[in-house]
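Suppose you are handed a protein chain with no further information: no name, no annotation, nothing but its sequence. What can you learn? This example shows the usual starting point.
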Amino acid sequence: MASPSPPLPEDSVPEGAIVLINVFTCEPSSQDALMALLDDLTRNVMAGLHGFVSARLHKGLDGRHVANYAVWHSVEDWKAMTRHPDVVEAMRPILALATFQPHTYRAGSLIGPI
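A reasonable first move is to predict its three-dimensional structure. Written in C-alpha cells, the prediction is:
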C-alpha cells in the first residue's frame, strides 16, 4: 500500500491544476449577503465536486467586490462544475446580487513564507 501524499503547504497548487480568480461586483449593501451565499455554495456544493482542491473568498475593502480564488485539478473539472445542476441552482440568488468575471490561470510564483 502506497503511503499518502504529504499535505500541500497552504496556498500551494498541485502540479497541472488551474486557478480560478472570479471577481464579483455588487452594491455595498449586498456584500455581506453575497459573501454568505458564496461561502455556502463553496462549502456545501463545490467542495464535494470532482476536481475541487481549495478556495478562498476575499471581501473587497471598497464594499463592492468579492473575489474567489479557487483551485481545480483541471480545466475540465472546472467546466463540469459550471454546468452542475446544484451549482446552477445555487447561483440564482448570487446572480440577483452581483455580476462576475471569471478568469482561469496556471499557477505562478509564490513569493513569501508559506
